[in-house]
Amino acid sequence: MQRYVVIGNGVAAVGCIEGLRSVDGATPITVVSAEKHPVYCRPLISYYLEGKTDRDKMQYRPGDFYQKMGCEVLYGVSAVRIDPLAKTVALNNGDSLSYSALCVATGSSPFLPPIAGLDSVRQKCTFMTLDDALALEKAVNPASQVLIVGAGLIGLKCAEGLLARVGSITVCDLADRVLSSILDNDCAAVVQKHLEDHRIRFMLSDSVERFEGDKAYMKSGATVDFDVLVAAVGVRANAALAKDAGIAVNRGILVNNQMQTSVSDVYAAGDCAEGEDVSCGEKRVLAIMPNAYMQGRCAGINMAGGSEAFNKGMPMNSIGFFGLHVMTAGTYYSPEAGGDVYEETAAGMRKKLFSRGGFLTGFVFVGKTERVGIYTSLIRERIPLNTINYELLKKAVSLAPFSDDYRRERLGGVV
Amino acid sequence: MRIEYVYPEFEVVRNEARCIQCRVCERQCANEVHSFDPDTGLMLSDESKCVNCQRCVALCPTRALKIVKSDCALRENANWPQGLIKEIYKQANSGGVLLSSMGNPNPLPVYWDKILINASQVTNPSIDPLREPMETRVFLGKKPAKVERDEGDGLKCTLAPQLTLAMPVMFSAMSYGSISYNAHESLARAADALGIYYNTGEGGLHEDFYRYGQNTIVQVASGRFGVHKDYLAAGAAIEIKMGQGAKPGIGGHLPGAKIVGDISRTRMISEGTDAISPAPHHDIYSIEDLRQLVYSLKEATEYKKPIIVKVAAVHNIAAIAGGIARSGADIIAIDGFRGGTGAAPTRIRDNVGIPIEPALAAVDQRLREEGIRNQTSLVVGGSIRSAADVVKAIALGADACYIATAALLALGCHLCRSCHTGKCNWGIATQRPDLVKRLNPDIGSERLIRLMTAWKHEIMELMGGMGINSIESLRGNRLMLRGVNLNEKELEILGISHAGE
Amino acid sequence: MKRIFVNEKWCLGCRLCEYYCAFANSGEINMVKALKDKPIYPRLRVEDDGGVTYAVSCRHCTDPLCVRSCIAAALSVDAGVVTIDRDRCVSCYTCILVCPYGALAHDDAGVVRKCELCLNNAIGQPACVAGCPNRAIVYEER
Ligand SMILES: Cc1cc2nc3c(=O)[nH]c(=O)nc-3n(C[C@H](O)[C@H](O)[C@H](O)COP(=O)(O)OP(=O)(O)OC[C@H]3O[C@@H](n4cnc5c(N)ncnc54)[C@H](O)[C@@H]3O)c2cc1C
Ligand code: SF4
Ligand code: SF4
Fold this sequence. Notes:
- The structure holds three protein chains of three kinds.
- By secondary structure, chain A is of the alpha/beta class.
- Chain A has helices spanning 11-23, 45-50, 65-68, 130-139, 153-163, 185-197, 240-244, 289-303, 373-380, 390-395, 404-412; strands at residues 4-7, 29-33, 71-75, 79-83, 88-91, 96-98, 101-104, 108-110, 124-126, 145-149, 168-173, 200-204, 208-212, 215-218, 223-225, 228-231, 235-237, 253-254, 266-268, 273-277, 282-285, 316-321, 324-330, 340-346, 349-356, 359-366.
- Helices cover 24% and strands 29% of the residues of chain A.
- In chain A, β11 (168-173), α6 and β12 form a beta-alpha-beta unit.
- Classes of the chains: A alpha/beta, B alpha/beta, C alpha+beta.
- One iron/sulfur cluster binds at residues 70-72, 74-75, 84, 89-95, 112 of chain C.
C-alpha cells in the first residue's frame, strides 16, 4: 500500500508534510507523534512562560492543518522499530505501519547529566517540550529559587522566561562563559553582564558535583539552595531508532542534500539529522528551526517523487534576552586555521565577521543586529567576497556593496 | 559691505505646525536653501538662495511650505520700479552684464490676448468634433504654384519634400546641453508618439536618439556644433538657425564647465572648452550666402529633406522673410521676442526684437503680395501658450507653431528663470546627473503627450465652432479673427477688423 | 502577482517613500498627526551609497526564507504576499537574521514590521509607489 509515514510531529514533520503535498495531493500520510499535542512552536515555550504568547498562538499551524493535508496523526504513540526491508514501522501500541517512503523527524532530546543524587531532587525538569513548560509553570511560585544547569541557549531562554515568575535564578555551567558554543569570551561577557543586570546569577567554570535534596554541592565547594532544578546541558539527536535499523548515523542521522539516509526510501530531517553545513562544507547536526522546516520540506518533495536539494543549511541563531539581541551564524575560523576576523566593539555592542578563502564563513553580532540577513546571505549563497565591496560591507550593512547587476536583478525582478 | 546687500526676492514660509522634519526639501533643493538644525530639531531656510522653483513646495508631503514674494519693499516709483533698482545694485556689485533665462517677463503687449476667435451661428453651422471627422494634419514644405500636367496629360505629382504633422504644433529647438538628456528623450518620445517633430537645437543629436530621427528636426547653427553627415541624414528636416527671439543679434555661449562627457562628444568639441556660437554665421552675409548653405544642405541630403530657416522677429521681418523664401528654404520659422532661452543677457532679452503676432501677419501678407507664399511654409514660435494661441496664429497665416516654454512647463519647469545657473531642480536645464535623473522620461513624455492631446481636442473644438473641419482651411483666414483694445495701426498690421466690425 | 520593483536609475533619494509608508501604516488620516515629532518606522528604507540611491522593501520572495524560519509562525504567505501577524511575533528576529535584503525591521515595541504592499492597511495599494515623485518604485506584474 502507498503511504507516507512521518515519525515525529515537530516543525521538520510539518515541512515534510507540506513538501509531500506540494507534489502529491493524494497518497495518505500517517504521522506518529509521541507528544500528545498538535505541532507547536517549540522555541516559544520560554515566551509562553514569559507571557509573550499563549497556547493558542503557539500553534504552528491552524487547527484544520492535518485534515486539510490529509494526514492521520497518531498522538501519544511512539515508533519503536524501523524495518527497512519490509518497509514497516513498529509502534509502541503494538501496531505496525507499512510505508512507501518514510521520514524520520524525531528531533532531539535533552541530555540529562548523570549527577549523583539527582533522584533526591524534588522538582526537576528539562526544558524542551510544551509539557516541560506547563510543568515548570506549575512548579514555580514568586518565591522559587531556580537552579538552571547549563548556560546555553535553552538554559538562558528558560531563565528569561521564568524570571518574572520566581524569586531568584542561578545558572551554572562548566564552561567559563555563557553561550559557550556560539560566543567567545568577549561577546559572552556582554551578554552575561546584561543578564546579571536583570538579576540572574551565574556560577561559571563550575558544575554540580552532587545533589542532596534541594541543595547542590558544586565542584568549587560552593553550595546552592534551590527548590526547582532545570537541566539544560544540551540535546542529543534522537537517532537511535535509525541506528538500530542499520541506517548510517554519526551524531545525527546522516543525510545527503536530498535528505536521503543511507537506506532507500528512508529520509531524515530536522534536529535528528546530520546534513551539510554550507559554512564549512562538513556535515553537522543543525538543531535549529529554519533548518528543520527546510530539510523537512526538501525530504517531503523528494519522497513524493519531486526533485529538491537543500544545501544551504548552517548553524545560526537569533536570540534575545531582555532586549539585548545576539545573532550568530556559520563557522568561525581562527587566524591559525587560515581565517580572517573583522571586529568592531562599542559599549554593549560587538560585531565579528569571519572569512576564509575569499568567503564569509561566520559572524557574531551582539547588540546591533539590523539587517544582519544580508551577511547571512553571503554565507548561504557563498558569494565570493571579491565580487562585492567587502570593505564597505564590513563597516555598514546595505546592498550598496553588491554589484549593480545583482542589486538591480534582486530589486527589479521576481526573486 | 552693507551697501551690496540686496534683500531676497522670495521668502520661504514654513508652517512649523505641519513640518515633520522629513528633510525632503533639504535633499531636493539644489540651491541649498533648506537645512536641518540638529540642535533645535528645526528646519532652517536661507532664502537668499531661493529662486522660487517650487520643487520643495511640490514635494513637501505635508504641504508645510510655500514660497512668497518678499514684501520687504524698496521705495519705488513708476520710473524706478524695484526690479530696475535691484538691477542697478547688482551691476554696481558685479560690474557685469545681467544674465537671465526663459522668456521676456515684462508687461509688453501680448496680441494673442487682444484677438478673439469667431464662431458660427445659424448660417454655416458649427461642427461637433466628437461626431464629425476633423482634420488637424498639416504638411510643411514647398507647395506647387499651380496644377501641372505632363505630356501624357497626367497630373505631375512630384512634390518637394514635406513634413507631415498630425497637429500643427512642434517642439522647438532646445539644445542638448542647454537642456538635459532626459528632457530630450521626453521630447523625442512624445514627438514620435504624437506624429509631430522636436528640434535638436544647436547642440547636435545624441546617438541614443537617432532612432527618433523620423520625428527630429536637426539644427545647424552658427557654431556648427555636432553637424556631420550622419547627423544631417538622421533628421526629417534641417533647420538653419539665423536667430532666436529671446536674443536676436547675438550668439550663444555654453560655458566649458557644461561641456562634459556626452555633451562634448555630441557637440564634437573637447571637454571643458566653451561652446561659443558666433552672433552671425561667418559664411552668411547675404541672401545669396544663405542660399548657398540651404543648397549645400539639400545637396548633402539628396534633396530629400525640407530645409527650415529660423530667424528672430525683428523690424524688417517681412523683407527678410521674402529673401529667405527666395533662398530656397522650404520652411521659414519666426521666433518672437517673448521666446524662451536657456541664457540671455537681460537687456537683450527684454528690449530687442518684436512680438510674433505683427511679425507673422506682416510676413504672411508680404509673401502673398509677392506671390511666393506657396513656396514656403511658415512656422511661428515665441510664446505660444495655449491651443487658442495656435488657432489664432494659424488664422493669422501660420502653417504651424513651435512651442518650447509650454513643453518645458509640462516637463515640470516652474519658470523660475534660473536655467543659466545649471541647477535646475526639475532636471530640465541642467547637466548635473543627480538633478537630470529627476526627470524620468517615462513621465515626461507622457505629460507632453497628454498636453498635446488636450490641445488637439481644443483646436478641434475651436475649429468646429467656426464651422471649419480642416486646419488647412483656417490658415490665413483672418476673417475668423477680431481685435479688441487695438489701435488702427495695430489692426492694419495684423490685418484684422476690430470686434463689432 | 503584482510586486514592488525598484529602478535605481530614477530614485532621487528623497526618501518620500519612507514617509508615505510610515504614514500609510500609522492608522492616522492626517500625515502631520501621524508623523510629527515621532520617530518613524517605515517598512522600506532608502539606501544611499553616496551616488546611487534605491528603496529596499520586502521582495515577497517566491520561496520566502523568513516565513520558513519564523519560530512563531507569525509570518505567512497570503496569495503571494508575505504578511505578518504582529500579535504572534515574539521578537526573536530570526527573520531579520535570514532575510537577504534586510527588508524586515522592528519598531520601538520590538515587534517586527514589514512591507505588506499596503494591502492590509487603509490605503489598499502601495503608498510608496503612489508617493514616489519619479516612478522609481513601481507596482506591477513582471
Ligand atoms: C527552549 C527552546 C528554544 C529554542 N529556540 C530556538 C530558536 O530561537 N530558534 C531556532 O531556530 N531554534 C530554536 N530551538 C530549536 C528548535 O526548536 C528545533 O530546532 C526544532 O523544533 C526542531 O524541529 P524537529 O521537528 O526537528 O524536532 P522536534 O521539534 O524536536 O520534533 C520532534 C518530535 O518527534 C517526537 N518523537 C521523537 N521520537 C519519536 C518516536 N520514536 N516516535 C514518535 N515521535 C517521536 C518528539 O516527541 C517531538 O515531538 C529551540 C528549542 C528549544 C527547546
Ligand atoms: S520616493 Fe521615489 S525617488 Fe524618493 S527616495 Fe523613494 S524611491 Fe527614491
Ligand atoms: S521576529 Fe517575529 S516575525 Fe520574525 S521570526 Fe521572530 S517571531 Fe517571526
